[in-house]
Amino acid sequence: MAQVSEDDPMDVDEPASARDTMMPRLTAGQSSPVQNRRTVIHSTSSQATAGPAQDSPDVIAVEETDEEDSTSEASVELVRDSDSDVVEVEEGEHDEDDEDETDIDDDDDDYAQDAVERGTQPDNSGRERETQQSSNPGDTTGGAQHTERQDTAAPATPAPQPGVRGVSSLSNSPAEFKTASPRKLTSKVDSDEDSDCCSICFESWTNSGNHRLAALKCGHLFGQSCIEKWLKGQGGKCPQCNAKAKKGDVRVIYAKTVKMVDTTERDHAVRELEREKQLRRKAELEAAQTRLQYEMALQECNRIREQLDRERQRQTQALSSASGPSSSQSSCSQASSSQQRRHYKFDSSIPLKGESRLLCYDPQHGTLVVSQPSPNQLFPGFGVKKISAIDLRSMQYVSVHSKAIRDICFSGRVDGLMLTASIDKTLKITSLMSNTVVQTYHTPFPVWACCWNQEDNNYLYAGLQNGSVLVFDQRDTSKHVEELAPARARCPIVAMSYVPREPSSSLRCGGLLLGTLQGGCFWEKTSTEYRPHPLPMEGSCTSLKFEHTTRHCLASFRPDKNHNSTRHLLCELESRLTGEDGRNHCSCHVMQTFYGGSTQKLLTRSALFPSPGDPRQILVCAGDEASTSAQIWSAGTGALLQKLPMDSPVLDVCPFSMNHKDQLAVLTDKLLRIYSWT
Fold first, then answer.
1. What is the DSSP letter of 354?
2. CA 495, CA 498: separation in Å to the nearest integer?
3. Which bin fits 530, alpha (ψ -120 to 50), beta or left (φ > 0)?
4. Which helix (H) or strand (E) covers residue 130, if one does?
5. Residues of the chain with pLDDT > 70: what percent?
6. CA torsion sign, 519 to 524 to 529 to 532?
7. CB atoms near residue 600 (< 10 Å)
8. Under 8 Å CB-to-CB from 407, ≥6 apart: which residues?
9. Residues 202, 185: contact at Cβ < 8 Å?
């Protein structure tokens, strides 16, 4: 090592040629170019106390050593010792990507401590200029000028070489020397992709202060101070989506942390589910339309078949009347003998809860319905119990009314709509396909009877307790469209049937057939109004049925002071034109009378239906309270064909056919008996 005296200063800012000539003097004995070079500069301050010696510059001693390393890159590092005032400049292999700022902090701390011990203050301005020199290694002139201004007598530090970074310890605080690193900037950009920092300044947002989390109305998140400055100077647009925004759109989000849950798969699954639901609804709608078309075609076929049967029956009656009385007697005897050979046989029974009252059959869905109270005490009321006619098994219970049901009838359409009348002053339409009430009509009095208009199912009728009839239209659910007031004393209507018009029959007009506790009445339906026609029926009517094939009606009456037993009158309705205005006069005449027992306390309902063995013959079935049985008569001869014993009084009877099998259902209070025609 070569020492330089204090009175012999060395100028390190001299040109490269001067340094080259000086290098052999400092490193004598070196014969080949060096690859690694170590230079030690000893700087000592002058200690003279008087005179111009106080302004003498520091003396710098330089020592250079050579090391063999052909692959390393030259570098310089300045190290200043606080005790010996030694600044070490080290040139050697250096990797810029592996810089450690910890060495800078340690040098800064040593320099600050040395300044405190000497009672001097570090030169911050010189440090800033040194930082600028280090950030621009190619500017050697600025570094030389700074050295001359700082100490004019002391030799200047050698100019930095390309690829060499000089480290200075002239900083008062380590934070002043730190600058943003490209590696840290990249990490902040990555964190922005994770949505945990502001996309403007790439700094993490906070939950308080000026840089707290805020959002625009477009939904993008920023730091509050950053986005306010951005909107002030960038024309009022979102930095993310370039949507229009203003300062008033900034909304502070009060959240400790912001986390996002990836719901992409769930949202995709929900969209797929909705699409599948739409396809399923479309398929169900197409299936329902196809089923409706099938049912309409089937209904049309049945109507044509019934019309053909009526024509055949008329031809047969015409031939029998032309052949004379002998042939008529022989045919009647043959019919009666055939009826005696075939009869109803008990098949099965279905137990019920009790208090059952009415029985009806829906041919479109093959379902028997029985009115009864609710089986669940938590949900009181009255409804119907569905029974499958295929396997004769009980199905679910459908709640309909709050009080007892007085009448049930079906529309005959494929929609399975059931019309029920109740003493709770309501008339309701229930769908047996969905088991729900679809329409409710309120009446001023309890409803005792109801029926559909067979020619136009949009209209329906309700027979009230005061004897009047309300006409409702399904297209107007607010109130009834017409009221038919009786001419006689007001008494309850216990039975009701609609009669369609038939120009070729004895009763050409159509209308409404009523049975009351004081007799019967027929309301003729014209194009504009309803006209009443009292029927010659005396007594308290309990049941009234109409048979569409023969257009006959069956009226049942209780015993009274003029008749000691129950009567069942088979009547033929007829109409004739009277008067100059050509109005119809409707009436009826009794064709056959069937007698039952001497007592009848209940409103038992009877039935009038074609014989299963011979459709040309009509059967009458009614319950008898005196003998607790169901009696079956032949409408043609009036003979009693069969008596079906029961354990309690019969309340209702209903014939039905399923799978080409004719059956008869008989209802009592707690039991439903099924009989098959054999």
1. S
2. 11
3. beta
4. helix 124-135
5. 66
6. negative
7. 23
8. 358, 420, 421, 447, 448, 449, 450, 451, 463, 495, 496
9. yes
> How many CA within 13 A on the CB side of residue 482?
11
CB 524 within 8 A of CB 583: no
Place of tokens 């216990």: 494
Query: Tokens representing 460?
Result: 């329906």
Q: How big is the chain, counted in residues? A: 678
Tokens for 102, please give them. Answer: 């910890």
For the segment 592-643, what is each residue's pLDDT rounded down to a tens digit? Answer: 999 998 888 888 999 999 998 888 889 999 999 989 999 999 988 889 999 9
Lowest mean pLDDT among 123-127, 214-218, 662-666: 123-127
- Contact (CB, 8 A) for 426 and 405: no
Using CA atoms, how far residue 523 sits from 38, 252, 488, in Å, is: 130, 77, 14
Edge to edge, the sheet with strand 567-578 lists 541-547, 552-557, 567-578, 583-595
Residue (of 561, 560, 513, 515) closest to 537 by Cα position: 515
Q: What's the pLDDT tens digit per position in 389-407?
A: 888 887 789 999 999 999 9
Instruction: Find the radius of gyration of the CA atoms of the chain.
Output: 57
Residues 6+ apart with CB under 8 A from 26: 2, 62, 63, 64
- DSSP-derived 3-state class of residue 54: helix
Which residues, 6 or more positions from 362, have their beta carbon under 8 angstroms from its beta carbon? 368, 369, 410, 416, 418, 432
Cross-sheet strand order for the sheet of 78-81: 59-67, 36-44, 86-91, 78-81
Q: Do residues 452 and 441 lie in contact, with contact meaning Cβ atoms separated by under 8 Å?
A: no
- Residue pLDDT, tens place only, 24-81: 343 334 444 444 455 555 444 444 333 443 444 444 444 555 544 444 444 444 444 4
Band of residue 364 on the pLDDT scale cut at 50, 70, 90: confident
Measured between alpha carbons, how far is 503 from 567 in angstroms, rounded to an integer? 31
